[in-house]
């Protein structure tokens, strides 16, 4: 069968690549065409656009690049119709993907499957109307989404497990790099590590990284190591350092999290990955107009937390410092607790265990691939 996939950022590229590998295993004749990244390209198929050309974040960057965004969307729509796949598989990235779904649903009979459902439970819940209208099958990787979609909105979905569980289990199985090797390869100091994960987009990094570094610099017995996002050049990180001593490493985030004593992490999949490695963390996310955004968060957001760790556990396992709560002092205080207060640290680790149990066993991409193929065959 012919599969057309769209992933608009680094995490989507990772998850889509594993889904593609699982589809290929179960369907040896699988053909792929995609908008995505380097990891999807390693599986094979024909790349149409790299996600670097799609990912714009924030009102001003989006406004400045509207012409490019619309051009990419037009190209994608035309390419799907021209190639005429057996299915279009959307991976997260709802702003772009739901527009594609609307167009393809209105103009073709090509089924639309959504892998890693849009997080409308947090923001823009009205998008459920678009999903019901334009998406044929939705595959969830978060257990609490089942009640949200099925009980609240009467829209049946498939919970397949979480691919992060698979990715980390595979890493742990194959990883042969010791702490000493990791330190030597990256020319690190012989000190315990505070990991800094400041996001995957330039605006996120610009907003978050300087403050995160300033807070972590208060612990001289630790070295600061930044996880470089694959699409961000080294020079961009260097501009954010401003004299702070920190090392930047690329393509080794799992090793960094495995060997870090603590981490400062922006929201998103990174918070979940950090918890899967049992690395204590502080979740930090800067927003412009902090007090106003904190007000909106309390009165507009539909969920009590922003981190996947807390949402899955349904309680505060990790501290979230968001908008005006993300101050250097607040980050320092929380870091001090997870580094030096054993009771606090152990409580967080117990919360991680509860969250990991709720996620379930590995096998998410394979379960999703099996269900996708079974559904497509049943509808032929």
How many helical elements?
18
The largest pleated sheet is described as: 7 strands, parallel
Question: How much strand content do the residues show?
Answer: 15-25%
Q: Which fold does the CATH topology of the largest domain refer to?
A: Rossmann fold
- What is the CATH architecture term of the largest domain? 3-Layer(aba) Sandwich
Strand order of the largest sheet: 3-2-1-4-5-6-7
Distance from first to last alpha carbon:
12 Å
Global outline: globular
Please tell me about this protein's structure.
With 380 residues, the protein is of the alpha/beta class. The chain folds into two domains: 2-161 and 363-378, 3-Layer(aba) Sandwich (Rossmann fold); 167-359, Glycogen Phosphorylase B (Rossmann fold, 3-Layer(aba) Sandwich). It has helices spanning 10-26, 38-43, 59-64, 66-83, 94-107, 128-134, 145-152, 163-174, 179-185, 202-216, 234-241, 253-259, 269-276, 290-299, 308-313, 328-340, 342-359, 364-378; strands spanning 2-7, 31-36, 46-50, 87-91, 112-115, 137-140, 158-159, 193-197, 223-228, 247-250, 260-265, 281-285, 319-322. The strands form two sheets. The protein has a seven-stranded parallel sheet with strand order 3-2-1-4-5-6-7, sandwiched between helices. Strands 10-9-8-11-12-13 form a six-stranded parallel sheet, with helices on both faces. Helix 13 (269-276) links the parallel strand 11 and strand 12. Helix 5 runs parallel beside helix 6 (128-134), helix 10 (202-216) packs across helix 11 and helix 10 (202-216) packs across helix 16.
